[in-house]
Amino acid sequence: MAASVWKGSIVLSFVSIPAKLYAAARSERTYLHQIHKVCHSRLRQPLFCPTCDRLVSRDEVIKGFEFDEGQYVLMEDQEIKKLAAHSSRTLEVIAFTKLSEIDPIFFDSSYFCIPEESGRKPYQLVVKALEDTRTIGLGKLLMHQRDYTVFLRPYRHGLLLHTMYFANEIRSVPEFGALENAHLKPQEVKLAEQLIGTMTQPFKPTRYHDEFQERLHKLIEAKRHGKAVESVPEPKFAPVIDMMAALKKSLAARAAPSKQPEEKKLPSRTRKPRKAS
């Protein structure tokens, strides 16, 4: 069983759902260690050979794959570079597909793709065509001595590149999706859908920010000036015993009109009639 990376509760208004997080995807790479060319020992940082008991220079370093404890398959840099030489400067688009057909679990890192001066017109042509057809390109790229399948999609009148997790990098957790029959009541489903409806809003990324970094900066500034900063209290959530009651309480809280003071109407100014001259 894989180890969870986080354990806590998903909080939806007054509904609290205990949950764990597991890595759904992770890059699978063959890692090569730095090996001392003289004695074939794995080097420590900064390039220290424990066998020779000395620092080594860059020209004494080769790569090695550890197939057994302390046993390495040795490779020269030129051997590795030959593997990448044929395609490291080419991003080949091999197909197009609809963005809606790609599950977000396959998205890894994102990169802005900006054209050189000579490529501006074909770049804009591709962006316009992708926007009009609402499709994205699938391509193959060799970068940093690793093969990637990538997505090219239009974004704010430019091209955004996303590296893709390969299918073998998508993890599986036996418990995921294998929920027992919870005997959901139609009323519970309806209330949950109503709650979601009251909380649905347009996505505006500027609303979200790293609150921890903000608190960290406040702590740094406070300590610089000899001030104290109150710690953030840990929220406590009561276990959900009656789901219907929790959902009704959540809906009531969302539906309650916010009490705002009514604007006072200013008295209109009346002009006195002018006296006839």
Secondary structure elements and pairings:
Elements: E1 6-12, E2 15-21, E3 33-36, E4 48-49, E5 54-55, E6 61-68, E7 71-75, H1 77-84, E8 92-98, E9 107-113, H2 120-133, E10 135-143, E11 146-155, E12 158-164, H3 186-199, H4 211-224, H5 243-255
What does this structure look like?
The protein is α+β, with helices and mostly antiparallel strands and 277 residues long. Among the domains are: 33-84, no CATH class; 86-169, Ku70, Chain: A, Domain 2 (Beta Barrel), CATH 2.40.290.10. It is built from 5 helices and 12 strands. Strands 8-10-11-12-9 form a 5-stranded antiparallel beta sheet. Strands 3-6-7 form a 3-stranded antiparallel beta sheet. A two-stranded antiparallel ribbon has the order 1-2. A hairpin with a 2-residue loop joins strand 1 (6-12) and strand 2.
Portion of residues in helices? 10-25%
Report, as a whole number of angstroms, the end-to-end distance.
Answer: 100 Å
Query: What fold name goes in the CATH topology slot of one domain?
Result: Ku70, Chain: A, Domain 2
Largest sheet: 5 strands, antiparallel
Question: What is the name of the CATH architecture of one domain?
Answer: Beta Barrel
Strand content: 25-35%
The total count of helices amounts to 5
Q: Which spans have pLDDT < 50 for at least 5 consecutive residues? A: 259-277
Shape: extended
